[in-house]
Automatic annotation (TrEMBL):
Gene Ontology MF terms: cysteine-S-conjugate beta-lyase activity; pyridoxal phosphate binding
Cited SUPFAM superfamilies: PLP-dependent transferases
Domain of life: Bacteria
Reactions catalysed according to its record: L,L-cystathionine + H2O = L-homocysteine + pyruvate + NH4(+)
One of the GO biological process terms: L-cysteine catabolic process to pyruvate
EC number: 4.4.1.8
Family annotation (NCBIfam families): cysta_beta_ly_B (TIGR01324), PRK05967.1 (NF004626)
Cofactor(s) in the UniProt record: pyridoxal 5'-phosphate
Descriptive protein name: Cystathionine beta-lyase
Enzyme class: lyase
Keyword Lyase attributed: yes
Alphabetized UniProt keyword annotations: Lyase, Pyridoxal phosphate
């Protein structure tokens, strides 16, 4: 018998073969879409003890289990819950791990709807919220309080793409007894695995790259062994389950996520480097560029980059931002990202407390889709010319 270790399969091979077992479903390649509320029990004793795998539609089906199994393999997780949106993937674990009188630390460059939830729902429930500088690193220790129960990170930062030293933040948080959560939607588990870096709970808006086609809302939350049971309890208590058709579409999207991300990454890098030399651009905010302040952290911890970054226009305000957007032909004007089409949006940063907005000009977030790079360059040239002329 050979003592050689089996070589781990490549990422695209794993994406093609996780979360499905044709032998379990009469040889069909894809698992069935199970629409379920009521699940029947064979007898009263089994019903009383809930002694079977499936008990009710909100507590899992073969369809949701297929996606969760695939995600567990990608994330290296003890367990994964599936929820109806990316925002729900943030709110469910926060509600599950915070109580009245607790304190939560949230990175100041966080996704705006997360901030809105914290400033409204969490504060109304008697939870103290503090926003910290994304560049704080080990300095997080100074902000920890005896009642700090959760530290919520996001890297790169939403809109402005600040990098965080996650291992240092994890060390400071864990020393103070806090659970660390990370919104990892930008990198996906293909380019960064939070749980491998000490994070306790990994959050993903599956609406973005896993779904990939701008037509699904879904989220997932993956936990390590220590946090899994509490996360699962919160999920069951809140009844926040994903719809079966959406779950199936995301599982199908995983099969091509690797090759799509390769294209998103390559096109975004080409455009980001080109934009660095264009008149009218003060800065390009992409952590994969050597010019980015967080590039060393990105290079140390991440294995790739996605298709989302921002540029700072060289001067102007809302008028120039609107002129830039209105001149675009292939870039759609819309929120979200991760789909096949390119999008652009003027980033609103008025809610920042410590990670302040760039001073040079408006920040324009670009989602680079699957179009040809030369066409996108021509489109951005039109936008920059319009901004300069406005």
């Amino acid at each position: 018998m050979s003592n050689e270790k089996e070589t781990p399969a490549g990422v695209n091979t794993r994406l093609a073969h996780t979360g499905n077992d044709p032998r379990a479903f009469f040889g069909f390649v894809n698992p069935p879409v199970v629409h379920a509320s009521t699940v029947l029990f064979p007898d009263a004793e089994t019903m009383a003890s809930r002694g079977q795998k499936y008990t009710y539609g909100t507590r899992g089906t073969p369809t949701s289990d297929a996606l969760a199994d695939a995600v567990n393999a990608l994330e290296g997780a003890a367990g994964t819950i599936i929820v109806p949106s990316g925002l729900a993937a943030v709110t469910v674990p926060l509600l599950g791990f915070l109580s009245a009188g607790d304190h939560v630390l949230i990175v100041d460059s966080v996704y705006h709807p997360t901030r809105h939830f914290a400033d409204t729902m969490l504060t109304r429930l008697g939870i103290e919220v503090t926003y910290y500088d994304p560049m704080i690193g080990a300095g997080l220790s100074a902000l920890m309080q005896p009642n700090t129960k959760v530290v919520l990170t996001e890297a790169p930062g939403s809109g402005t793409f600040e990098m965080q030293d996650i291992p240092q933040i994890v060390a400071a948080a864990h020393k103070g007894g806090a659970v660390v959560m990370m919104d990892n939607t930008w990198a996906t588990p293909l380019y960064y695995r939070p749980l491998d870096h000490g994070v306790d709970i990994s959050i993903q808006a599956a609406t973005k790259y896993p779904a990939g086609h701008s037509d699904i809302l879904l989220g997932w939350v993956s936990a390590n062994e220590a946090c899994w049971e509490r996360l699962l309890d919160a999920h069951g208590a809140l009844g926040m389950c994903g719809a079966p058709d959406d779950v199936y579409q995301v599982l199908r999207g995983l099969r091509t996520m690797g090759v799509r991300l390769e294209r998103h990454q390559a096109s975004a890098f080409a455009l980001a480097r080109w934009l660095e030399d264009q008149p009218g651009v003060a800065r390009v905010l992409h952590p994969g560029l050597e010019s980015h302040p967080g590039h060393a952290l990105w290079k140390r911890d991440f294995t790739g980059a996605s298709g989302l970054f921002s540029i700072v226009l060289d001067g102007g305000g809302e008028r120039q931002a609107h002129a830039f957007l209105n001149a675009l032909r292939y870039f759609g004007l819309g929120y979200s990202w991760g789909g096949y089409e390119s999008l652009a949006v003027h980033v609103s940063l008025g809610d920042r407390k410590v990670a302040l907005a760039p001073k040079e000009g408006p920040v324009m977030r670009l989602q680079i889709g699957l179009e040809d790079v030369d066409d996108l360059k021509a489109d951005l040239s039109l936008g920059l010319a319009a901004a300069a002329a406005s």
